[in-house]
Design goal:
The chain has 172 residues and is of the alpha+beta class. It has one domain: Beta-Lactamase, CATH 3.30.450. Helix content is 38%, strand content 22%. The chain has 6 helices and 5 strands; from the N terminus they run ββαααβββααα. Strands 2-1-5-4-3 form a 5-stranded antiparallel sheet. Helix 4 runs antiparallel to helix 5. The longest helix has 21 residues. The structure holds flavin mononucleotide (FMN). The site of flavin mononucleotide has 15 residues, from strand 1, strand 3 and strand 5. Flavin mononucleotide binds next to strand 1, strand 3 and strand 5.
């Protein structure tokens, strides 16, 4: 499928919206709730079995997804701000909680992402951070961006240990 050309049209996520999807071990979409289809503009047939990266917006720094996957693989949940790309090139911001769901016997069941609206001032703050991380990533690579993310956390009195809590606080 051809990737949509990003526009600066923003789709609204309201405070009551909860955008849910589930993925297999490779991150392919195995389930999505109706609002997920509605906001992204894709049909079920277009989304199911596709990688979650179908939503990847070019404004998103790689380091955020690296952090997401490093933690998921370690069995840890992640809260992260994500700017997603819709089929028509528009975008929407969410605060995503992504976690691993297990079967009763402890084996892997799926990954589950629950996405909520982001406050305008938080979008601005995180958008500025992501723009900086993206620039560093392009000129110096992902490791340098990871260091810049750690520095930003430290400037805010935080660390990767308090990352999830801090992301949630930023949206309060
Ligand atoms: C359950 C789950 C939900 C995800 N949701 C998103 C999402 O909403 N947007 C997104 O860009 N990536 C999402 N990802 C991450 C993608 O798998 C992928 O790492 C990311 O889009 C970067 O793509 P790339 O590694 O091909 O550059 C999700 C992953 C999982 C496991």
């Amino acid at each position: 499928m051809q990737r949509p050309t990003p526009t600066d049209i923003e789709r609204e996520v309201t405070a009551v919206d909860m955008i849910v999807s589930k993925g297999n071990e490779a991150g392919d979409i195995t389930y999505a709730n109706p609002i997920f289809f509605k906001i992204s503009g894709y049909s079920q047939g277009e989304l199911l079995d596709q990688p979650h990266s179908i939503l990847r917006h070019p404004d998103m720094p790689k380091v955020i997804f690296k952090y997401l996957w490093d933690n998921l693989k370690a069995g840890k949940e992640v809260y992260a701000y994500v700017k997603n790309l819709c089929k028509d090139g528009s975008y929407y911001w969410v605060l995503a909680q992504v976690r691993v769901a297990k079967n009763p016997d402890g084996s892997f069941r799926n990954y589950v992402s629950t996405r909520r609206a982001v406050k305008p001032e938080t979008k601005e703050k995180v958008g500025a951070l992501y723009a900086k991380l993206l620039e560093i990533e392009k000129s110096q690579g992902v490791e340098a961006a990871e260091k810049a993310l750690a520095d930003w956390l430290a400037e805010n009195g935080q660390s990767f240990e308090t990352f999830n809590q801090f992301m949630q606080e930023l949206n309060k």
